[in-house]
Design goal:
Largest sheet: 5 strands, parallel
Number of helices: 13
Strand content: 5-15%
Structural class: alpha/beta
Length: about 375
């Protein structure tokens, strides 16, 4: 018996029906949060040698050299004791912890390869994976929420390196929490590396009364040597514009014809994200091979927008293509949002969703 036709009448519907993100309510135990603090799948194979600097941006070439030296200055011993050793220096390791910054901070616009470099540093550091941690700022704060502050300090103090991607401070509580946490980890001999779109001394500006927490922000800044990485978003270098949205019928057709695809209406998905903690968004996408969305529209408020940013990051990390109908992704966020304190997050989300939309075009071309 032949398979039924998809709604557009252009191909067979596979069995079973598409998955649904809205039907998932994952539970993520604390030990999984710790075990998963490694570079995401998209960055499994990246190395300094695979980073392609823009020849017109010398800061990109400089960053590679500095980070290679940073990795070479870390040995595989445990943190603390003899673990307090050189970071940027050469020659014999000093007996005492070096004065000055204990980490490196990559500042630059979205799409200049900061996460590629951060993951390359993680891979290049001569230590067992269990002695290195890699996660986004949100994942780090979620870890504290899951384990408690003291247990988080104890767990991470034995590490040689902590890499924090997308370092941003969104509220005063996070400022005090992270300032205290990183201070204790530095005292334990843990090396730090972070990426952000905001220089460490400017964290929190436009989002809360940063001046009231200047001491904590300055304390965070003191932990890092800042490296500026200039350049344009590599996802747009020589690449075609993002494909226009598809019709509902086309998206539904592809969802049924693609094994492992999910199919959800955009508005219900946004509502579902409010019921799932952002620390579980990665688990929400476990096993998903493609995300198909119908009726994409501008997000209604900032809380919803910030949750969507986290989902976009997790999908991008896992290289999950996104096929959508409705509004194009560059119209997700209002002008007020794009001009506000979280604008860099929103531009990053647009950039990443656009890249995933390009990836999704092959799902239609292969049919």
């Amino acid at each position: 018996m032949s398979s039924p036709l998809a709604p557009s009448g252009t191909g067979p519907i596979t069995d079973p029906a598409p998955l649904s993100l809205c039907a998932r309510e994952p539970h993520v135990p604390a030990d999984r949060l710790v075990a998963e603090m490694v570079p995401p799948p998209r960055f499994d194979s990246v190395r300094f040698s695979t980073y392609i600097p823009d020849p017109d941006q010398p800061s990109q070439i400089e960053a590679v050299g500095v980070l290679e030296g940073f990795a070479a200055g870390l040995d595989s011993g445990a943190a603390g004791g003899s673990g307090k050793r050189r970071l940027f220096g050469f020659g014999k390791a000093p007996k005492k912890a070096p004065a000055g910054p204990r980490g490196v901070y990559l500042d630059g616009g979205y799409g200049v390869g900061k996460t590629h470099l951060l993951a390359s540093l993680w891979h290049a550091t001569p230590a067992e994976p269990a002695l290195k941690a890699f996660g986004t700022f949100v994942e780090l704060t979620n870890l504290v929420g899951a384990l408690g502050f003291q247990q988080t300090v104890q767990t991470l103090s034995g590490h040689r390196l902590l890499c924090i991607d997308e370092f941003e401070l969104d509220d005063p509580g996070d400022t005090v929490l992270v300032s205290t946490l990183l201070g204790k980890l530095v005292d334990a001999g843990v090396a730090l590396a972070a990426t952000s779109n905001t220089l460490p001394g400017k964290l929190g500006e436009g989002r809360f009364a940063a001046a009231d927490f200047l001491r904590e922000i300055q304390g965070l800044s003191a932990h890092f040597r800042a490296l500026r990485i200039d350049g344009e978003d590599y996802r747009h270098r020589g690449l075609p514009e993002a494909p226009p949205p598809y019709s509902d019928a086309q998206v539904t057709d592809v969802a049924h014809a693609t094994e492992g695809a999910s199919l959800d209406s955009f508005s219900p998905l946004l509502e579902h994200l409010a019921r799932v903690h952002p620390s579980r968004y990665g688990a929400l996408t476990d096993g998903i091979k493609a995300v198909c969305l119908t009726g994409v529209r501008p997000v209604p408020d900032q809380s919803t927008a910030l949750r969507l940013v986290v989902l976009a990051d997790r999908l991008y990390d896992r290289e999950v293509p996104v096929l959508a109908s409705g509004m194009p992704f560059d119209q997700l966020f209002s002008d007020e949002m794009l001009n506000g304190g979280y604008r860099k997050k929103y531009f990053r989300a647009i950039s990443r969703l656009t890249a995933l939309a390009r990836d999704a075009a092959r799902l239609t071309n292969s049919r």
